[in-house]
Amino acid sequence: MVDPKDIDFYSLGFNFIETKTMFMANHKNGKWDDGELMPFGSFEISPASCVLNYGQGIFEGMKALKAKNGEITLFRPEKNAKRFNLGAKRMLLPEYDVDKFISAIKSVVKENKDYIPPYDSGGALYIRPILFGYGPVLGVHSADEFKLIIFTVPVGPYFPEGFKGINLEISKEYIRAAPGGTGSAKTICNYAGTMLPAKESKLRGFSQILYLDAVHNEYIEEVGAANFFAMINGKLATPRKSGTILEGITRESVLEIASKKLGLEVEERNISYKELYEETCTEMFCSGTAAVITPIASISLEGKSRIFNNREPGEVATKIYELLTGIQRLDIEDDFGWITKV
Ligand code: PLP
Ligand code: COI
After folding, report:
1. What CATH number was assigned to the domain covering residues 166-330?
2. Whose CB among 33, 55, 223, 308 lies 3.0–4.6 Å from 189's, allowing a Cys bridge?
3. pLDDT tens, position by position, 53-112
């Protein structure tokens, strides 16, 4: 573990840092044990383990934040618990009780409270629950032993640009998910396949890829690790839940903030990438636990680029960022009932 005194909480990126405590529960003979807190560390795993050979695994991403008064908040943790179980079902993993999940999250956060970045740093304690097929297999079928682990890492912004616009590349070559596949589950397999496209795109100077749908190769799906929004014809549009996008908790919250706090008309629909090149599209941003609200400065497809708002964050992205992070850090009244205190 790294001593929290040796961490500069004011210059954190999104990189692994070892903290003090993790939670581990085991599922054997058809049932979960009670689980326990233990020092963060390695464990033994069979080379024939199902997760290593066939990728039977899911994860979640959450954040604990420090408010101005020192209180620690979680954002809609019950949503993560429920999505975790939907993913578990899809990947033939055992579900975990929602209340137990939230109580395990709280206990890991409390144990690692010295790693929560201070309020004025803008950072967070990122919480990473993972669940995977631990037992050995040879044929392609589920393991019969499973592990749930929850660990934490202090983080700063996901994109090094912070709350500045990122440059995205639309891909006509790579697809993230297809109908009937696992796109809406937070399975580890969905991420491994995006590493090569992301690396190639970075070499061309872009922060990330904007993925299109697998069937028409035309409609926006999402960014590698965040959902997508655009202001088009004065309405806030986001790709509809098609089964191929990750149904983000921030996405859902943005839609509620935009309609209920900003009085914007919101639409969940198919958005052609061609619409992003029209004058009627005035602003774009992406959303996620790690990405929070990240404005999009430019998009590019096969050399055809469009720059938005002189690369400055748009008005809607800025307002939503302020409202969302204000609620999360208790600076703004939580009318929605989204905050759980640790
Ligand atoms: N899309 C993908 C592929 C993601 O990995 C994430 C991150 O969790 C999101 C979208 C945003 O989801 P959320 O807002 O629940 O963090
Ligand atoms: C999150 O926002 O929590 C994510 O899961 C993104 C992650 C892949 C870094």
Report:
1. 3.20.10.10
2. 55
3. 999 999 999 999 999 999 999 999 999 999 999 999 999 999 999 999 999 999 999 999
